[in-house]
Design a protein that fits this description.
The chain has 50 residues and is mostly helical. The chain contains one helix and no strands. The protein is rod-shaped.
Length: 50
C-alpha cells in the first residue's frame, strides 16, 4: 500500500514540475511577443493621420 502511494506521489511531483516549466516557457514567450508588438505600435504611431 505504501509503495503505491509513493509511486503516485512521485509521478504527480514529476508532472507538476513538467507543467510548471512548460507554463513558464509559454508565459515568457507571450511576454516577448507583447513587448515586440507594443514597441511596433509605438514606433508607428507617428505615421497615423486623421
Amino acid at each position: 500500500m505504501n509503495e503505491k502511494i509513493y509511486k503516485t506521489m512521485s509521478g504527480t511531483g514529476v508532472l507538476n514540475l513538467v507543467l510548471g516549466i512548460c507554463l513558464m516557457v509559454v508565459s515568457v514567450g507571450i511576454g516577448i511577443v507583447m513587448i515586440i508588438s507594443g514597441s511596433r505600435l509605438l514606433k508607428k504611431k507617428g505615421d497615423i493621420t486623421f
